[in-house]
Amino acid sequence: MAYQIKEAFYSIQGEGVQAGRPAVFCRFVGCNLWSGREEDRATAACNLCDTNFLGTDGQQGGRFENAVQLAQHLAALWPWPEAETKLSRTARPYVVLTGGEPLLQVDQPLIQALKQAGFEVAVETNGTLPVPTGIDWICVSPKGQARLQQRSGDELKLVYPQAGVDPNSFLELDFQHFVLQPLDGTPQKEAQDFTQQTLAFCLRHPCWKMGIQLHKYLRID
């Protein structure tokens, strides 16, 4: 199977429970809830996305003919130590498969190739497709009224507020962590209001952790 990648880069995880952790990010082309074109946003199942996932012209993007080729491409972005030490053994290489919707392309051969390359593998998905076996960290971010197929994992990260969506309706699902992340609105005042709304909700419902998009504050990818 060939894989289409918008971009791939090395940075820190800016969101959720793993925030602050160095990672290689692999952004796949395509999504099943929005075409990625602005003219379709208003009628899309998800109109919250702030990410460009169209085309293969991003940083380190491209088309990869097989899983091993893509895994090698991503492994080249990790700062492997020249010599193994006790400290380097604790810093397990970490790759985050994201999109768009990565599960339109992620399959068992790719997961196996990434594991063989030495990676711990995470996925960030909208949850409308089942996650293949072998993923080490599953983060599901529900979007609107889209029906969830993936109802378990490590982290449920919900953008808040979303019209007609009650965060507490997800608490019956089998996740270890529940994170509420303020909608990144525009203009800035609206974004600040969303942050205050999220803060207030988490204080009223302490089963939720408040998530912040750290990378945006740091102005990094």
Task: Give the topology.
Elements: E1 3-12, E2 22-28, E3 62-64, H1 67-75, H2 86-90, E4 94-98, H3 108-116, E5 120-125, E6 137-140, E7 152-160, E8 174-182, H4 188-204, E9 209-210, H5 214-218
Parallel strand pairs: 2-4, 4-5, 5-6, 6-7, 7-8, 8-9
Antiparallel strand pairs: 1-2, 1-3
Helix pairs in contact: 1-3
Describe this structure in words.
This protein is an alpha/beta fold and 221 residues long. The chain has a domain of 153 residues: Aldolase class I (TIM Barrel). The chain is 20% helix and 25% strand. The protein contains 5 helices and 9 strands, in the order E-E-E-H-H-E-H-E-E-E-E-H-E-H. The chain has a 9-stranded mixed sheet. Strand 4, helix 3 and strand 5 form a beta-alpha-beta unit. The longest helix has 17 residues. The chain is globular. The two termini are 28 Å apart. The model has no long low-confidence stretch (mean pLDDT 92).
